[in-house]
Amino acid sequence: MDNFVFQSPTKIIFGRGAEKHVGEEVKLLGKKVLLHYGGGSIKKFGLYDRVVKSLNDAGVDFIELGGVKPNPRLSLVREGIDLCRKNNVDCILAVGGGSVIDSSKAIAIGTIYDGDVWDFYSGKSSVERSLPVGVVLTIPAAGSEASNSSVITNEDGWYKRGLNTDVIRAKFAIMNPELTFTLPPYQTICGAADIIAHVMERYFTNTKDVDFTDRLCEATLKTIIDNVPIVLKNPEDYGARAQIMWASTIAHNGLLNSGRVGDWASHGIEHELSAIYDVAHGAGLAVVFPAWMKYVYKHDVDRFVQFAVRVWNVDMDFEHPECTALEGIRRLEEFFSRIGLPVTLKELGVPDDRLEEMADKATNNDSKTMGNFVKLNREDVLNIYKLAR
Ligand code: NZQ
Ligand code: ZN
Questions:
Q1: 164 and 219, same domain (yes or no)
Q2: Ligand 1 mean position to 42 CA, how many Å?
Q3: Residues near ligand 1 with C-beta < 6 Å?
Q4: What percent of the chain stands above pLDDT 70?
Q5: pTM here?
């Protein structure tokens, strides 16, 4: 196990009715807040009114900006920054999913930065300060409510780029599983794929002596595998929604990679897909991850065998461990298909005529490798896209 520093400072307020506390929590962060949200689901299902009431009851002054799209755009971030500067906003409240939270984080760092906020995402500048961000989470998926990341798409060239720094972690996250009852099945399953991917990015590691975090990863995966079919049948099953919601935060708040190095190639390979084709991130991962696994499993067959046996209950074939490893990958794919996710680019609706371009973008024209478990060059990335066709 590697040395590590684990810091997960986000205060989690979890359970039925938790959003009632949003006003008092925001009041601890500042006097004037930007209420930031997406395409309208929070208004449709009454959450907006409850949040506004709580802010008013707590005497918090607020302005608002809606319209965040999935795969959040730089142009709206810039609009939010202008708004915050003009109105002397001193904190941001994200009400929504990963897209709203990531857009909020970008506005929070951009408002108090002299240059252009894209500098942080292009690697030109590093973040030193942020306005405080609070969250009311409506979809378990990206894990942004407690992660150190923000992912933004620049429409100029359709570059989707992430930023990782502890400075942008949310101060609080309000998580009421009841808020997820209204999720369309497709968003539920895309969220599930993203959660599974966040765990697998950490699971496939070269770091030795990590059995404790292996076991935490396996428990998190099994929780998603067991509970997603339950909520697809009964969207208002509070118990199952609660399991998924808490697992999604744990999957991406840093605990599961304490003392180990994760891979992250599949996320980078997927981001090129959702940047160009605007597909849901989770759906893209359901396509990319199994292809990545088939491409790299020989690097450490034992680890893939452990994944197959412990997570998917595959019987160990001692004479042919590779068969056991491949059966684990097959069961993952079969699970994705069974719950309704695409597992090929074709099923995702992505044509195969821009694979070279995506491989170029992902590797910066073959000038950098992707991933840690196996380092992938441009040709490897292209081969993975081809395997996913
Ligand atoms: O926009 P509205 O109308 O609110 O509808 C949203 C949106 O269309 C809808 N939705 C959310 N909660 C709902 C709901 N509909 C009904 N009832 C509810 N309770 O769901 C749709 C998707 O929302 P979005 O925020 O895009 O989903 P998600 O949480 O999956 O976020 C995806 C974004 O997060 C990034 C992804 O790349 C993508 O851009 N990621 C961020 C990470 C991070 N910051 O740590 C890590 C991830 O790996 C990921 O890259
Ligand atoms: Zn993800």
A1: no
A2: 13
A3: 38-42, 70-72, 96-100, 102, 138-139, 141-144, 147, 149-151, 179-180, 182-183, 187, 191, 194, 252, 267, 281-282
A4: 100
A5: 0.98
